[in-house]
Amino acid sequence: MPAGVQQALLAHAAASAPWPLTLTDAEGNILVANEAAAALLGYGRSEFQSLHILDTCPLDRASAASEVLEDLAHRGAVSAVGIAKRRDGAQVVVRYAGSKLELEGRVFYVFSSFPARVIDTASTPQARGGSASRHDDITEREREILMLVGDGYENDQIARRLHLSVNTIKTYIRRALAKLGANSRAHAVALAIRRGLLD
């Protein structure tokens, strides 16, 4: 069966499933999602399909989500409980399962999600219009990557050094910039040093 036909069948199966189902490429970009998956996180289907899987994670859990993608790439299947971020800022505890598919040399991930409960975020800073995170939300992995940025390493060099994909490194850096309120890599390093996060 040609790869295009296989992908079309896979997309149809994802779209017609009765439970939340999402199909991503190897980098975690959402390619296909059904109405149940989009509605679970408060999105329209077309908008949801323009996101990266990490866009559905709270900032402080992005590194854990990246590690799930890496684990999925190596093991071929994952199953756990995690927290997803709704479009309105609320958080949903979900049980999820992911599996790796290979079609004609391309890698895809299929995620099924089952909501457990919604976390009330009405009293969180972001719900009041404040900052969603503080500098001490920086994860150890983000700190490690910022140190390497400060040492002059480029994304591809960092990726090789840490045995991660370049897109994963970009995601860590983007999350660190957002947490620090920085507008560039150099600005993020400067802010992290000023706040005592880097030596």
Topology:
Layout: H1 3-16, E1 21-25, E2 30-33, H2 35-40, H3 45-48, H4 62-75, E3 77-85, E4 91-103, E5 106-119, H5 140-150, H6 155-162, H7 166-180, H8 185-194
Antiparallel strand pairs: 1-2, 1-5, 3-4, 4-5
Attribute tags:
single chain, 199 residues, Beta-Lactamase, five-stranded antiparallel β-sheet, 8 helices
Task: Tell me, briefly, the overall form.
Answer: globular
Query: Biggest sheet, open or closed, and with what strands and sense?
Result: 5 strands, antiparallel
**Low-pLDDT windows of residues:** 122-136
| CATH topology tier name of the largest domain | Beta-Lactamase
Widest sheet: strand ordering:
2-1-5-4-3
Q: Specify the CATH architecture of the largest domain.
A: 2-Layer Sandwich
- Helix-strand makeup class: alpha+beta
Terminal residue distance = 56 Å
- Overall mean pLDDT stands at 80
Protein architecture, described:
- With 199 residues, the protein is an alpha+beta fold.
- It has two domains: 117 residues, Beta-Lactamase (2-Layer Sandwich); 60 residues, Winged helix-like DNA-binding domain superfamily/Winged helix DNA-binding domain (Arc Repressor Mutant, subunit A), CATH 1.10.10.
- Helices cover 41% and strands 23% of the residues.
- It has eight helices and five strands; from the N terminus they run αββαααβββαααα.
- Strands 2-1-5-4-3 form a five-stranded antiparallel β-sheet, with helices on both faces.
- β4 and β5 form a beta hairpin.
- The longest helix is centred in the C-terminal third of the chain and has 15 residues.
- The chain is globular and about 50 Å long.
- It starts with a helix and ends in a 5-residue tail after the last helix.
- About 8% of the residues have low confidence.
